Amino acid sequence: MEDSDKDQLLDKFIGSALGTFVGDALGEPVEGWPHGVIYSQFGLLDTMIREEGRYTDDTQMMIGILETLVEKGRFDPAVCARKFKENFDPGRGYGRRIFGVVERIRQGIPWDQVGTDSFGNGGAMRIAPIGCFYYADLEAIKANAILNARITHNHPEGLAGAVAQATAVGLAFQHGLSSGPIEVEKFLDSITAQVTDIDKGFGEALDGIKPIPRCSMLEVIEAIASRYNLSLRAIESVPAAIGAFVLTDSFRDAVVLAVNLGGDTDTIGAMAGAIAGACYGYGRIPEEWLNPLENGEKGRDYVIDCVKRIVPLLLQ
Ligand SMILES: [Mg+2]
After folding, report:
1. How far is 264 from 58, CA to CA, in rounded Å?
2. CA of 55 to the centre of ligand 1 (A)
3. Mean pLDDT estimate for the chain
4. Beta bridge partners of 153
5. How confident is the model at residue 78 (pLDDT cuts 50, 70, 90)?
6. Which residues of 194-205 are buried (b: 16+ CB within 10 A; e: fewer)?
7. Nearest-5° angle of CA 295, CA 164, CA 170?
8. Which of 102, 144, 187, 234 has the greatest number of C-beta atoms within 10 Å?
């Protein structure tokens, strides 16, 4: 493996991890707002509204997955459950059910018995490191995305959402920057092939992206926002985030499109940022978004440092 290959793996892996962080922090101030309200207030929102780009549960749980890969050299759900518990900060916008999950982990209940029957996007929002780490093997992406999601989510839609998002990250990671634009139908069909046996309806939801033409950003936003109910339900929000990636040509446009869809904006932004970051790399994330990211004990530099410790494992 050449140094340039290592550099590209690092660029893409950091891109996906910080892509999650950036999308989360950009979308957080307007979480729950419908598209029309965001648009009337900001036009197209494309700046960090707050002085400090603070992350929410999406990024905090992604950090737990990074730490698991650093500690074990592979994904391990028991270790990851412990990391989720150790990192848990109730001020980070966690869903109600996660408080119970964390409490059960604290009580020593095994990782595969603490989750709930949630169809939410919590398994998908944090999954970027699994898609990057196992990028060369779609079967491994699927198996580890399921293990990861099952810590918190047992509903087929919640599991399929995590596998779909991890697969999108893995395919974007594999995609060379010189290989031309993503082929939308092929990209979506490869994801559907990974999830159909988990949830029959998920592929149909992904197919909703196919007829949307690549017109102006505002028209694409309106098309996606009218097709999907942009709640925290995985079968709605994961296809929307994947759509934000396949219907744009840059990291910036993918994330701007995602956070302006409205609804669960921090998570849709985090997921679109994870996929776009895996494709375009760290070097394409706008500096005006990177600079304000919180950088305390487990902030921006910590995320980069974790990835730097993981990428050499990909080269062995
Ligand atoms: Mg969140």
Report:
1. 11
2. 8
3. 96
4. 116
5. very high
6. bbeebbeebbeb
7. 60
8. 234
In one letter, which amino acid is 68? T
Summary count for the chain: helices (H), strands (E): 17, 0
Give the distance, in angstroms, between the CA of residue 228 and the centroid of all CA atoms in the same chain: 18
Amino acid 215 reads C
Report phi then psi at 193, rounded to 5: -60, -25
CATH topology of domain 3-314: ADP-ribosylglycohydrolase fold (1.10.4080)
- Confidence check: pLDDT of 35 > 70: yes
The string of pLDDT tens digits covering residues 94-123 is 999 999 999 999 999 999 999 999 999 999
CA of 5 from ligand 1 middle (Å) equals: 33
**Residues paired with 120 in a beta bridge:** 233
Task: Output the CA 93–ligand 1 centroid distance in Å.
Answer: 5
Domain ranges of the chain: 3-314
Query: What CA–CA distance (Å, rounded) separates 265 from 118?
Result: 19
Token pair recorded at residue 315: 């080269």
pLDDT grade for 2, boundaries at 50, 70 and 90: low
- What is the Å distance from ligand 1's center to 88 Cα? 13
